[in-house]
Write the structure tokens for this entry.
Amino acid sequence: MRIIKLSFIVMSVLALSACSTLHKGSATGASGAVAGSSGAVTQGLGQQSGFAGQDLATRQKLMAPRDQVYHFAFDSDVLSKLDAASAKAQANYLVAHPGARLRLEGNTDERGSREYNVALGWRRAKAVAQILKLQGVNNKQIVVLSYGEEKPVAYCHNDSCWRQNRRVSLVYEAK
Amino acid sequence: MCGVFMKKLFGVVFVILVALPLYATAALDLELTQGVDKALPVALMPFAGDSAAANVTQVVNGDLGNSGQFNISLPKDLPSPQGYNNKINYSYWRGQKINNVIVGSVSAGGYGYEIRFKLIDIYNHKVLLKEGFNCSKFQLRELAHHVSDLIYQQLTGVRGIFSTKIAYVLVQRNGDKQKFSLMVADQDGFHPRALLISPEPLMSPAWSPDGGKIAYVSFENKRATIYVQNVATGQRRVVTKYPGINGAPAWSPDGRKMALVLTKTGYPKIYTLNLRSNKLEQITTGYALDTEPAWAPDGKSIIFTSSREGGPQIYRVYLNNKKVERVTYQGNYNARASFTADGKSIVMLHREDGMFNIAAQDLASGRINFLTAAGMDESPSIAPNGSMVVYATNYGGRGILAEVSLDGRVKLRLPAQEGEVQEPAWGPFI
């Protein structure tokens, strides 16, 4: 009876440790997959930062040349600290590679007038372009445009989608 | 606020529509927001003839009824036959408090159909209109709209809009894939046809004043480009493709110039482009966002949306001296304005308490009149006779088009399509 009870505890502990090992492994595997795929976007990294740690996320985002998505607060064209650092990393690459071409696509959420949103998205994309230019990137290497609210990535009609759609996408046309 | 009243009226209207011989994908989804007490009582005798006659009757009934100007009845159980060739029983109609009676017939003949109709004034014992037309079976609906136009103009003194078209953008999404179509349909939503289909966004369709061309913005090359496309032939040409924004095209009333938005200075500004000489002129200056130009009917000034004092408001710039004056003051978000045909009012997108609705502002008094209240309304475009506004709204979780009369009394929803419908542009008289 005692032995059975003990072995049950041992098995439970083994099972638990197996669980945690499995968990760790899957987290590493997932982040590895993101790093390996070309044109990967930072969206999945935010969710994993709890497992992988802020450092990995930061490192990922700072790698250049890499397509990026920067998000914005409502009615704002100010980049977060990480995104600004990441923009500088892209700038360093662009300066070192004059043949590289980057497209900056401004986007807004669905609220408001469509052409006015094109103007708002433009202001966001220009804010990113301004950071790149201050780092010495040649005007010819950047294409700035704005889709306004016409290219959402999330389709619900509340803030959980709106925050995903208020963004500037950086797309390398040549690396 | 008037929900019960609305429901009651809706029920009545619905019954009338169902009692009609319906065809194709059914009529407009009619929703009157207020009573029709001021509407003129008109009796529409079902046109004599086969199913084609029933179709014509239905179109005329829909057109005149949906205008909100008339209280249309379809009489039955009459003391004596009241067809096209019968003697009009004036005393009977007077007893029914009917002002006007429409009688007509549709007969197969020659290569298609012959339509005849009369519009009768009961109180003055007069035949106001007596017309006859021939058409092919494919033109039957078009001709029925023409009959509605003639009756509407005779009774109201205002030209009818039942033969006009509406352009709009249809967006269909399938997973990550999107399909954008530039569509043209009859003003009641029937007969939609695609002018352009693209995997990238299409925006801001604008009719030339003669109705022959449509300008629009296309992102098909991952750059914004303004095109002008011939509606009949489908041929198109590039108007502008400068780096940055090429947006919000608007034809001048004489069709010679186009107002548009470019970012040549680094900031979205209003320009005019002479379409013959290609001469470009910058109209507004500064660091603010200026967009959505719309011409005054006399072509001498342009209203536009600007962030120059914070949130978007409507301003007016005079083209001879480029002086700018502010037009809207009520609320912290006014955008996408356009003039009514008489130039005395503007219709625009107005936000209050986070709700986006369509509003009209009288320019002399500055008084604002709210036309809609759904909260997700946008992109208003005024009919050429100034009676109705078409706009984009959300219904049942989908983007659809709706119409509202400029006095706010009548509201209609256009037949729904597969996908999201947005950015309607009401075409001119043709």
